[in-house]
Amino acid sequence: METKKIILDCDPGMDDSMAIVMAVKSPKLDVMAVTTVNGNYPVDVTCINARKVLELLNRTDIPVARGMANPIIRKSPSDPFTHGKDGQAEAFLPDPKIPLSKLDAVDLIIETVKANPGEVTLVSTGPMSNIAMAMIKAPEIKDMIPEIIAISGAFGLNDYAFLNATGDTPQSEWNVYVDPEAAKIVYESGVKLVCLGLDVATYFDVNFSDADIARLEKSDKPEAKFLLNAIHFVNGRGFDAYCTVIDCMAVAYAIDNTLVETMDAHVGVETKDGLTLGMTVIDRRHHFVWEHLPFIKVGRKADCGRFLGLLMDLVLA
Ligand code: BDR
Ligand code: CA
Question: How many CA atoms lie within 13 A of 12 on its CB side?
Answer without folding.
Answer: 33
